[in-house]
Amino acid sequence: MGKYTNEEVEIDLMDLLYTIKSKLWIIILSGLMMAFAAGLYSTYMITPIYTSKTQLYILSKSTSITSLADIQIGTQLTQDYMVLIKSRPVVNQVIENLYLDMTYEEMQSKVSVSNQTNTRVLEIRVNYPNAYLAKQIADEFANVSTEQIAKIMATEKPNIVDEGNLPKSPSSPNIKRNALIGGMLGGLLAAGIVLFFHMLDDTIKGSDDVEKYLELSTIGLIPIENGKSTKINSKKEKYTSKRQKVKRG
């Protein structure tokens, strides 16, 4: 019984693979169309975002690099500095200095602060639709945050390692990636639709289906030549027209 079940599953899988193979052109065409649509949408409908970043070094010039205690303190203060950079006083000061029509929440969502592992370097990233303004915001965050950190912590200002870069190309959206994802989803969707309608089709298509679904053995097949029915119909029409002429005569 188990052997029969395994054979039945194998036949079903082969049938599904044959269906996909026969409709492969539809799946490929759907994938290409979805990839093209995703590329157009990413190019013309999504606002490009530019990313500018700047870096701060926690230890000041007067700190002794050879002192293990100073290095450990700098590492511990890194987390505090990350919070201070995105604090309300710093963010509001940046908005005021650049005369931006933005709220604190809007600006905070466009700024991220990270710390590279085992370093005392903070990286400030700004994502903004305008490349030049993204650089200005990054630089202003570096300047304002160093002043604010020195004021609150009563220490020297952290050093600015690198000023904000001017991005030449947008960081998002990734048009190639979106087109690839769209093509894959389009192909999978088309394959799913093809298999769905194939599973719903319960019509008898041949002797194999008769034996499989009706459990009946076929005795023989009657071949029908292409165009046979049309020839018969044409002969009937000629015969009918002749009879009508005879009656009229």
The average pLDDT is: 79
Largest sheet: 4 strands, antiparallel
What is the CATH domain class of the largest domain? Alpha Beta
Give the oligomer, counting copies of the same chain as homo and different chains as hetero: single chain
**Largest sheet: spatial strand order:** 2-3-1-4
Order of helices and strands: HHEHHHEEHEHHH
Distance between the terminal alpha carbons, to the nearest Å? 74 Å
Determine the structural class based on helices, strands and strand pairing: alpha+beta
From the spread of the alpha carbons, the general shape counts as elongated
Estimated radius of gyration: 37 Å
- How many domains? The number is 2
CATH architectural category of the largest domain: 2-Layer Sandwich
**What proportion of the residues is helical, as a percent range?**
55-70%
- In DSSP terms (H or I, runs of 4 or more residues), the helix count works out at 9
| Counted beta strands | 4
Low-confidence stretches: 1-11
How much strand? 5-15%
Q: What is the fold named in CATH at topology level of the largest domain?
A: Alpha-Beta Plaits
Question: Which key terms come to mind for this protein?
Answer:
4-stranded antiparallel sheet; 62% helix; 2 domains; disordered N terminus; 9 helices; Alpha-Beta Plaits; alpha+beta; 249 residues
Molecular structure report:
This protein has 9 helices and 4 strands. The chain is 62% helix and 10% strand. The protein is of the alpha+beta class and 249 residues long. Strands 2-3-1-4 form a 4-stranded antiparallel β-sheet. The N terminus is likely disordered.
